[in-house]
Amino acid sequence: MEKFIINGGRRLKGVVSVSGAKNVALKALVAACLTDEEVIIKNVPLISDFMVMVEIIRELGGEVKIKGHVATIQMKKFKKERISLDEGAKIRTSAMFMAPLLARTGIAIIPNPGGCRIGARPIDRTIKGIRALGVSAKYNSKDGFFYLKIDKDKAKKWKKVIHKFDKSTHTGTETMILTSVLFCGVTVLKNAAEEPEIDELINLLTAMGAKITRSGKREITIDGVDSLHGAAFTIGPDRNEIVTFAVVGILTKGDIFIKDAHNVDLEAFIKKLEGAGGGIENRRDGIRFYYKGILRKTDITTSFFPGFMTDWQGPWAVLMTKAHGESAIHETIYESRFGYVKELRKMGANISFFNPNVGKPEDIYNFNLSDRVPDYYHAIRVKGNTKLHNAVVEISDLRAGATLVLAGLAAKGQSVIFGVEHLDRGYEDFEERLKSLGANIKRVKDE
Question: Is 116 in the active site?
Fold first, then answer.
């Protein structure tokens, strides 16, 4: 186990680059397994989640070569249809390997996926979707595996499948796209998610020979093909990293220029940041984020794209501790995503929980209402103009980790942050990039 030791209170400034988008890189690895030819993925983030997905590909019989930030993948033939429980439990996107396994072998045995515990996060919407494609899907609660099978001869007779998601699902949309590209006939997905990372995946699959179009508002049409071929693809910058460094710059009263940050959709974040009084300057080769004066309280409600991303609400909570007034943050995507609040309170943050009065919760919340428990709160109030101080805190998940690091950088004194391995799942060389901006942060092995 490792920890960060941060001596906070420094003004951070300088130029920084962000990694390729994690939420594209992991899905690109799955897409590469849909063909027996080589697929080259450039600008991959060298994070632990990426390496777990690489090991799953190797376990299934594929080859992966990594040189710098370029990965070359080739799955000539699947040697097995089962993903091990150990590897699958490490990462949620392991379940998406059901797509190439079903498309190329007709069988997939997938463990109930792991990853960050930020709520129940069931894959019921994905399972319901692939069943619409004719896949037999059974879950064995005794061993924790989904057993999936498709009759490929029957699938060849299908002409058109129309599936409408009950609620927006990023992972479900991507898994349905990946599964159906090699199925005969046409698949139409309605109420499909619109995140830009999905469009990047579509661009990769199109480069591999797939026929996919956004055929309307929240609608995607996949015209199945017999086979896919190799391709080379470059991943765009990670918008979660951009937001993290943007908040770092303003939170520490600093000035940070993020190179190549203009190619991702940050409209919801930029709009709220401008409303709060943050400094933003769009340039040809990136975006500058800087402190320009007193911050104003600003309320946010998380939502699926094009709304304010759920991954951004933790950093926003830290930023609002420095604003004048009381801000509210309403989380609608996950039923339990305020694990960082207890730790921020240790650092002096004045945050209280509440449940907003909503008329039709089934229309407001994107999680399954049946997954809620009485102790869960879906919103917080953050009192601003608060002086954060040093503390010893524990990271509970990836985005909570970034939130606590931001708080440590803004706080006076020396803070100790345990559970750094969670951060390694999504941020490459995080502390080194922060050091380049003037942060006093070091990684220490806990003995």
Answer: yes
